[in-house]
Design a protein that fits this description.
Elements: E1 2-6, H1 13-21, E2 26-30, H2 41-44, E3 54-57, E4 60-63, H3 65-75, H4 87-112, H5 121-146, H6 161-171, H7 184-194, H8 197-206
Parallel strand pairs: 1-2
Antiparallel strand pairs: 1-3, 3-4
Helix pairs in contact: 1-3, 1-6, 1-8, 4-5, 4-6, 6-7
């Protein structure tokens, strides 16, 4: 059986939802990041990066959301969690997921984990203060993508890109992120996500509320 290591309301929420959408058989293992469980030897033996998510499979352990999401979409074709079409369509979806991972997530990290990027209190304060304006600028590409009336990231087809976007749509409401007033299409997408049975199930499992 698969084993997913996650932390509540962390980015691992995307992989958690994707597995639930795929109706995969898996064990969800909660880590308390505030207590430092991700740095304990037992978990570092699973994922030396000391972060979530990590997905233990019969062939080995996968890390990084983009990889796990792609693996779920490919491994459970009956769930239709990737765009219809050829490998280009799949790659285009992964391009969007990588934008979330390497741009949007990193900007949030400047807010939540500023100590990774600066040492002085003044530098960290400046970094945090810049986050709302940076997110607003970066998010324009996402709003533009949803601007043609599509219900999901890749159009009419729900894919693993949708739970990944949902993670960051939730984080917009965290202190210091600036809120989602400038992202109405993302807010609508977030609402659609929270109407899905798999999403509701995972939120209940993680003990976090819909927004």
């Amino acid at each position: 059986m698969l084993k997913l290591f996650y932390a509540p309301n962390a980015c691992s929420l995307a992989s958690h939802i994707a597995l639930a959408e795929a109706d995969a058989e898996f064990e969800a293992v909660r880590l308390d990041l505030k207590a430092g469980e991700q740095k304990k030897p037992e978990y570092l033996a699973v994922n030396p990066k000391g972060r979530v998510p990590a997905l233990v499979t019969p062939r080995g352990t996968l890390t990084e959301n983009v990889v796990i999401l792609g693996w779920v979409a490919q491994t459970y074709p009956q769930a239709h969690l990737k765009p219809d079409g050829d490998f280009f369509a799949f790659s285009e979806m992964q391009s969007f997921n990588l934008y979330l991972a390497t741009t949007i997530h990193v900007t949030f990290a400047h807010l939540f984990r500023s100590y990774r990027y600066a040492d002085s209190e003044s530098a960290m304060a400046e970094m945090k203060a810049k986050v709302p304006s940076s997110l607003k600028e970066q998010w324009k590409l996402i709003e533009d993508r949803l601007g043609d009336g599509r219900p999901w990231v890749c159009g009419a087809q729900y894919t693993v890109a949708d739970p990944y976007l949902y993670v960051f749509a939730r984080w917009l409401e965290r202190d210091g992120a600036g809120g989602s007033d400038a992202m109405p299409l993302t807010r609508a997408h977030r609402t659609r996500m929270q109407e899905r049975a798999a999403v509701q199930k995972v939120l209940a499992t993680e003990g976090i509320a819909a927004i």
